[in-house]
Design goal:
The chain is an all-alpha fold and about 90 residues long. Helix content is about 65%, strand content about 0%. It is built from five helices and no strands. The mean pLDDT is about 90.
Length: about 90
């Protein structure tokens, strides 16, 4: 995956997280509880395309890799470009 493609995915995931907050405020449910569950596929594509060493380094539990990726994506002090670079390089 190119860095530009990862940047686009990270930006989309950031917007989904913002949308999720609004949906929870309005309906009490997030996007995963309704008609928009397929938006989770963006996170899946990010997970499938992080640097291969993430999969071996963060595999102690089922959620460990997801948690690591989520931590990177939700960092407020980093740009999407910086996050994409981190996800595509060896941790």
């Amino acid at each position: 995956m190119t860095q530009q493609d990862m940047i686009l995915l990270v930006k989309a995931q950031e917007d989904i997280l913002k949308m999720d907050i609004l949906l929870k405020r309005l309906t009490g449910l997030g996007h995963s509880n309704g008609e928009f569950i397929n938006l989770d596929n963006i996170f899946e594509v990010i997970r499938n395309n992080v640097h291969c060493s993430y999969h071996s380094k963060y595999n102690k539990t089922d959620c460990e890799l997801d948690d690591k990726i989520y931590d990177i994506i939700t960092k407020k002090n980093m740009t999407a470009e910086q996050k994409a670079a981190i996800l595509l390089q060896k941790p």
